[in-house]
Amino acid sequence: MLVLAAGLWLAAGQPARAQEVVTLQATMILASDQPTAQDPRLDNIEYKLRRTFRFEYYKHIGEGSAAVNLPGATVLNLGGGFQLNLAAADAGKGRVRAAVQWMRGGEAVLNTTVVMSRGVPVVLGGISHGGGTLIVTLVAR
To answer: Do residues 86 and 100 make contact, with C-beta atoms less than 8 angstroms apart?
Structure first.
């Protein structure tokens, strides 16, 4: 219900036009100082994470993606009882605004709104988990 309300809020005031489809992709990562093998799936983002979070190791935990009409809402299941509830809308200039609710086992652990340039990941997170910190990267394509 909260995602639907956020989607309606994001759509308010938008001029009538053909709906645009965007693909939203999220990757969940565990950052920690416990040794783990480097994951090639994180090669394009790990250096940015190191500068921000200052952990030594980053492990791919799960991911999800979905195509959604703008404005519209979707749910991305990330595995391990985690999911993102997303309400997305056109933010102008090729950008996408998304109201994000990060859920763990049915409980919200993060609520935020982000504006994304297409193809540029935004980093969400910093929630404690298993001796480290969970991070989610979200990108609109």
So the answer is: yes
For the entire predicted model, the pTM comes to 0.82
Confidence of residue 51 (pLDDT cuts 50, 70, 90): confident
For the CA atoms of 102, 65, 121, 14, the dihedral, rounded to the nearest 10 degrees, stands at: -80
Q: Are 80 and 59 in contact (CB under 8 A)?
A: no
Q: What is the DSSP letter of 71?
A: S
Tracing tokens 């910190």 back to the chain, one arrives at 133
Residue 23 near residue 140, CB atoms below 8 Å: yes
Helix residue ranges, H only, the chain:
2-11, 46-53
Of 125, 120, 24, nearest in space to 72 by CA: 24
Q: What is the spatial distance between Cα 1 and Cα 50, in angstroms, rounded to a whole number? A: 36
- Which tokens is 81 given? 């009882």
> Residues 56-86: pLDDT tens digits?
999 999 999 999 999 999 999 999 999 999 9
Question: What does the DSSP 8-state code read for residue 18?
Answer: P
Cα gap 20→40, rounded to integer Å = 32
